[in-house]
Amino acid sequence: MTEKDPDFSSYRNPSLSQVVEEFKELWAMVLPITTMNCLVYIRAVVSVLFLGRLGSLELAGGALSIGFTNITGYSVLVGLASGLEPVCSQAYGNKNWELLSLSLHRMIFILLIAIIPISILWVNLENIMIFLGQDREVTAMAATYCIYCLPDLLTNTLLQPLRVYLRSQRVTKPMMYCSLIAVAFHVPLNYVLVVAMGLGVPGVAVASVVTNINMVVLMAGYVYVSGRCNMRWTVVVGGGDGGAVMELLKLAVPSCLGICLEWWWYEIVTVLAGYLPNPTLCVAATGILIQTTSLMYTVPMALAGCVSAKVGNELGAGKPYKARLAAMVALSCAFLVGIVNVAWTVIFRERWGGLFTTDHMLRSLVSSVMPIMGLCELGNCPQTTGCGILRGTARPAVGARINLGSFYLVGTPVAVGLAFGRKVGFSGLWYGLLSAQVACAFWILYVVLVRTDWEAEASRAKGLSGLEMATRNARREVGGGGDGDEEGKRLLLCDRER
C-alpha cells in the first residue's frame, strides 16, 4: 500500500452515489440477518407458549431456567464467538483464506473448553437457586428444563462461530434460509414432543435443542458444499498454535465482556423490580418490556454484526476510506432505526401491552414505560452499531470498558437512586437504563468518530493479517518445519489498545 492509493485516504468526501452504493451493500447483508434474528426470537416465543400451555408452574420453571441459561451460558458463548469477527473479516479482506479457516477451528476449540464450567453450573442449577432462596417446586422444574438443554451447549460451540464465520464473508442469505427451515419444524416438533408424546417440560427443551441441531447441520452442510472452509482440523493444544489460540482469546474475552455486561443488566433490572411495591405486577411488566426490547434489538444487532464484517473486510483489504464510509453509513442507519423505535413505542404504547395480557393494571404500567424504552433504543441503536465497528477494528476491549462504566457506574446508581431513593418506582429503573444508554452512546460515538485513525487501523490490519501468511509461506519454503518459535511469533490480529 502506498500514499498514492486512492482508497487509502479516509478523509475524502464521499459522493452521493458512493453513499447509496454502500447503503445498498450494507442492507443487503442486514435484512437477511435481521430476518434470521427474528426467526430465532420466534423460536423462543414458541417455547414459552408451549410452557404456558403446560401450566403456571411449568411456565415459571421454564422462565427461570431460560434466564439462568441465558446469563451463564448463551450470552457467554455468543460473546466469545464475537471475538472471531475482526479476525475473520480482516482475513477475508486480505484474502488470507488459511487464517480464515484456522480461526474458525480455533474458536470452536475455545468454546469447547468454555462449556465445561458452564455445564457444571447448569447441572447444579437446583442447588444454586435453592441457596438463593427460590421456590423449591419452581426450581425443580427449572432444573429439569436445564438438564435437557445441556446438549445445546455443544450445538452452540458450532452454531455461533459458523454464524460469525459466514457473516464475515458477507454470506447472509444462506444463514437466513437455514434458520427458516429449522424454525419451520420447531412448532410441529414441539407439538409432537409436548402434546402427542406428553413429555412436558423436557419435550420443550428437547425441541429447542433439536431445532438448533438442525440449524448447525444445515449451515455446516452449506459451508462444506460451498467449499468455504478447509475442513482439515488443525487446532492443537500447546506448541505454536496454542499461542495463536491465546491471541484469539485476547479478542474473544473483551468481546464477551462487552456483550455480557449489557445482557446481564436487563436481568438485574428484573431482580430489582421484585423489590418494588407490588412486585408481581412489576416483574410481569419487566418481562413484557424485555421481550419487546429483544424484538427491537434484532435490527441493531444485525446492523452491528454486518458493519463489523464490512469494516473488517475493508481494513483487511487496505481500504480505510471505504471502512470509514461503511461505519458512517451504518451509524446513520442506526439513528434512523432508533427514531422509528421511538415513534412506534409512543404511538402504540396503549395497545402494545394488550398483546401480552388482559390485566388492566399491567397494561397501564407497560404503557407508562413504553416511551422511555423507546428513548433507550434511540441510544441503544447507535451504541450497538458502534460496538460492532469497534469489533471490526479489533478493539472490543474499548467497547467492554464503555459498557462497564455506562451500565454499572452510571445506569445502576441512577436506577436504584430513582426507583428506591427518590421513590419514583418502576419507571425509575427504566430511567436508569436510559441514562446508561445515553452515556454508552456518547462514548462509543466519541471513540468511533473522533479517536479512530482509519489509516492506522488499516495499516495494523494489513500488517497483522499479512504477517501470519508470510510466516506460513516462509515455513513452507524451508520444508514445513519450525512449528515452535516461528508459530510462537505469529500475531493473529491481536487487539492492541492505544
Automatic annotation (TrEMBL):
Keyword Ribonucleoprotein: no
Name of this protein: Protein DETOXIFICATION
Residue span of region Disordered: 475-498
Organism: Nepenthes gracilis
Membrane-protein topology: Multi-pass membrane protein
Family: Belongs to the multi antimicrobial extrusion (MATE) (TC 2.A.66.1) family.
A Pfam family: MatE
Ranges annotated as biased composition (Basic and acidic residues): 487-498
Membrane-spanning residues: 26-51, 63-84, 104-125, 177-199, 205-225, 325-347, 429-450
CC per GO annotation: membrane
